[in-house]
């Protein structure tokens, strides 16, 4: 087992990883930008190294500086968390070249699954159902039009190297194709340095269902209960839950078989998440694979009682998984909300500044708060707006949602704007409460009504 691990991240995920490492008796090293010198992840780590200025390019994604920090502190492994360098195959390769263990899949696997078109090809060959679409890269508008006419509109144009909605466009008719293709390709090149594109058939009224999997170096595979991540805004998840109400035990068994087949086909190592779209008939189609720990991993931990970061570290150290598939049990239901420093009523504009006061209700059974927020903390404008993950667990979905609503209601953050009121309204929505929502529900059904109510409330206040 490692004696010292560097955590190449910041905020709540860095704090969460450091806590598990400490429980395992492993020395921890934090990295930080000059803007983050007083952050909680710096304070809870055994050591901390400044790796550059406030902008991520100068610090958290400065590969040379991060590796130098690991070498100088004698770290034996690097845990990347999620975001930043977590799915950068070049960085993972560089880490290995200096004799440090990467807590994640091999660089070549990250590269393979990070390119969405290559991933689709690999999954097709492994016998995994894949969303209909192009069989290779789309280089120009003419090729895009040919594929779109073949599979039928609407289609989804996506950056092959993308993620998080960048370089992505929904196209509903031929007249929209040329301008959208040009803009999406330019956006892809700007964000990823890669202008390769591909096209998928838009599957309407679908759910976003994903399954976390972990595979050790000896080929043992354990699939964990699926998560429903269908409540999204601009392709960013807003609420996640496990298990998915739309997934029957038979469907789950099929997913486990498919996911196991997929990770064995690419000789996967460590943890990852395979994301599917589920149609109205219950059929699943591969969308992409994330080769890292997920933001929403706490709901999986709540319903299984497992520490996924501990499992990641054990697998990276060469240990066999301490459990088998038959050992995985689903206990109750868990729901997670992402509290963000934003102004939802102002088109979710980011809110930065000093946090004068914060209260996060951590008490009571089945309550979990993952956050790095504290009184006097500074919300920086350079990083993601998520400031806490609020997680509730109970025997049933209804009870878990009611508990989460109570947690959100009790939360108090003074000094910056947050998404709290938006989240409360979402947890009271009939479509959410009755599990009648798909990936477009939030934007097409919930948000228009909520925004109208906010405008009316503002008029009354005036």
UniProtKB/TrEMBL annotation:
Keywords (A to Z) from UniProt: ATP-binding, Biotin, Ligase, Manganese, Nucleotide-binding
InterPro entries the record matches: ATP-grasp, ATP_grasp_subdomain_1, BC-like_N, Biotin_carboxylase_complex, Biotin_carboxylation_dom, Biotin_COase_C, CPAse_ATP-bd, PreATP-grasp_dom_sf
ATP-grasp domain residues: 120-317
EC number: 6.3.4.14
Top-rank lineage group of the source organism: Bacteria
Entry cofactors: Mg(2+); Mn(2+)
Start and end residues of each Biotin carboxylation domain: 1-447
SMART domains noted in UniProt: Biotin_carb_C
PROSITE patterns on file: ATP_GRASP, BC, CPSASE_1, CPSASE_2
Protein name: biotin carboxylase
Species annotation: Fructobacillus papyriferae
